[in-house]
Amino acid sequence: MKLSTKLMAATAIVSASAASAVELEVTHWWTSGGEAAAVAKFAEAWNATGNTWVDGAIAGSGGTARPIIISRILGGDPMAATQLNHGRQAEELIEAGLMLDLTDVAEAGNWREIVNPPSLLDSCTLDGRIYCVPVNIHSAQWLWLSHDAYEAAGLDVPTDWNEFVASAPALEAAGTIPLAMGQQGWQQNLAFGAITIAVAGLDDWREVTVNKNADVARGESYAAVFQAAADARELARNSNVQDWNQATNLVITGQAGAQLMGDWAQGEFSVAGAVEGQDYSCLPGLGLNEILDTGGDAFYFPVNDDPEITAAQKELAALLISPEVQVSFNLAKGSLPVRGDIDMSTANGCMQKGLGILADGGILPSGDQSLSADTQTQIEDLMAQFWSSDMPADEAQAKYADIIASAD
């Protein structure tokens, strides 16, 4: 495939230096079926330019991959490009001068005009310079529901979180796991965050997550959140799987009624041939709030001393945000594009719901944009303890409030 006219203009500043074919190693943690299908779109587009994508997939979650990625960069063995999440994960690497400045590429491609919401590019910016290219918008506040599971239980598919909770006894009576949940802290923290917005509301969520208000975290609204999380913990007691995509498979196969998971779950439904509205339903904001956070993924390019590699890195950065690649990648990934100027009319119903919320401005910053990686890790560790034990809700709330009190 040819690069579009817009992409040619955006990469004109670097194409002269990247005249010969270049191999670039790209690290990421997209290894599930749906994720692999999506990242292949990036690789195909890069290989079509005459260059070569050397895939550096790291099995496991971001929590597993990020320390490996960072260790390689600090150890002097950097990859050419790497996935990280929007937010503060690369701050120290940028401050140490280890990440390539992409400001010239961004200015040539008018990223400030096309990236929506602008906060995504703000997360790539430090001291007025741009160091990453955002490639998608992922949101965590989704409830995925199995039509087969509800048909077997003789129930209508719920339309919100409260109806789902009410349906749990009938699901259990039919031998179905009410809530699929992988046994990892980041998954449990994601579920906690989605429940928080639904139960505590947006104002208190902002006070705690954005403003780090520990008094609100200790208050009544968050007491209700932790009790709701404790109730959800019971619904997931028999979900004996580890990885998020294994939990998604429980929903796809009708073994579980629902899963709290980000919109990347759509990639798994797609690979399985499941049809939205027929085989499964998706409820953004758990069906209670027309709101989504704007997390997601960005690519950073570690500094190296080879001008040819540097030129190719900048060419790849421009390619990842080009219109054609944004469409093909995000349709496969189930995420929303970062460009507000492309045609996504072929997206399925779940993506259309997300696009509608994005267009209406119903967006929040993600936890990765508001909290440091250290604070996020502390919260994930707490959630892993809470979900895997009988820790009382009030004890978990007190520990959580202490983390927020010292959050940076």
Automatic annotation (TrEMBL):
Name assigned to this protein: Carbohydrate ABC transporter substrate-binding protein, CUT1 family
Keywords: Signal
Source species: Yoonia litorea
SUPFAM superfamilies for this protein: Periplasmic binding protein-like II
UniProt keyword Signal, yes or no: yes
Signal peptide, first to last residue: 1-21
